[in-house]
Amino acid sequence: MAANAHPQDTLRSERSPRCIACGREGVELYDALVDDLYGAPGAWRMVRCPDATCGMLWLDPRPLQSDLIMAYARYHTHERGARSARELGLSALNATCKRVSHAVDLATGLARQRRALRMMFLGDMTPGRLLEVGSGSGRFLHRMHVAGWEVQGTDFDPAVAERVRRRYGLRVDIGDLAALRYPAEAFDAVALSQVLEHVHDPIALLRECARLLRTGGRLGLSTPNAAGLAHRRYGRNWRGLEPPRHLHLFTPAALERCASLAGLRAVNVRTLSAESAGVYRASDELRGSRGPSRVIVSWVRRHLEYRAARDDPAAGQDIFLTATK
After folding, report:
1. Torsion of the alpha carbons at 154, 127, 204 and 138, rounded to the nearest 10
2. What is the Cα–Cα distance from 272 to 275, expressed in whole angstroms?
3. Residue 301 contacts by C-beta under 8 Å, 6 or more apart in sequence?
4. So what's the pLDDT on residue 7?
């Protein structure tokens, strides 16, 4: 598809008019979205699938795949400079709230959810060969290596991959998963944590994951939930939108449909609140709140969201898909 003309310091774009899950043409949800998180250039339009049983969101137009790396120049997986006294103070307050909140988790079931998510719901499997697509900081790969898995990762960003290699001594290959040409059925488990929303063709990525899984192997995948309480509360200020890096945002139904189209069988599709505090905190900041109270409120809202999910299974901030083939 022909790219729009842009100055050199902007991201070139292309149209993406139809829902990848059901083929419907999108209707505008938000216009003129900008990256207030990491300063990527451009203003972006988010559309929604009009089918109420789908509800997929996506950028239309979206950045060209060849230009998207520019949107990660200041991303959180890169090295940061020294933090200000204010940032250090907020970080200390957040650490205190986190300890208190995790203690409360023990009485609510959030502790079990958090522990399961730390291992991408693979902790009940016998350790084997594990591939993480989009390794980011490398903490999950390291955690699973310590647990006895033979691990390796992929990432499209050479700086991030090198950082994981230096810190943990683990293998991280650079590039598109399909282009790396791993053998079929090479892995007992494949994990994607907050990755699927970043790619141009999520179904193709899921199809490649299915090819790499041995028969009976397991895929564990987390992604922001477009149908969750946080998006309902904050709208265009929801941290999960993250234009222009988040190209597709899923509902539970849309994600399960995409997995099926890729040849995967969903074993469980659930929403989670374990990691939602940071989303509430950042969403309040995007809305204009800068005070320390937003730190405390974010952890309270995390617990309220978890309680709401008992009656509304779509309430959680993140969707987690467990699938096999």
Report:
1. -30
2. 8
3. 230, 276, 277, 280
4. 39
Residue (of 68, 53, 59, 21) closest to 241 by Cα position? 59
- pLDDT value of position 323: 98
**What does the pLDDT read at residue 79?**
53
CA 139 – CA 117 distance, rounded (Å): 13
Query: Are the CB atoms for 3 and 59 separated by under 8 Å?
Result: no
pTM of the model: 0.93
- Reported as half-sphere exposure (CB side, CA atoms, 13 A), residue 207 has a value of 8
CA distances to 4, 251, 275, 292 from 320, rounded to whole Å, are 35, 11, 12, 30
Q: How far apart are CA 164 and CA 18, in angstroms?
A: 36
Q: In the chain, helix, strand, coil percent, each to 5?
A: 35, 20, 40
Token output for 177: 């998963």
Residues of the chain scoring pLDDT < 50: 1-8
- pLDDT at 77 (0 to 100): 60
- By the 10 Å C-beta count (0-12 exposed, 13-18 middle, 19+ buried), 138 is classed as buried
**Topology given in CATH for the domain delimited by 84-324:** Rossmann fold (3.40.50)
Q: What are the tokens at 37? A: 């998180």
CB contact set of 174 (below 8 Å; sequence gap of 6+): 154, 155, 156, 157, 158, 161
Strands 172-174 and 150-155: parallel
Helices (H), ranges, 67-109: 85-105
List the domain boundaries for the chain. Answer: 84-324
Q: Is the peptide bond before 61 cis (omega within 30 degrees of 0)?
A: yes
Amino acid identity at 103: A
Distance CA 303, CA 171 (A): 37
Contact 53, 252 (CB under 8 A): no
CA distance between the termini of the chain: 33
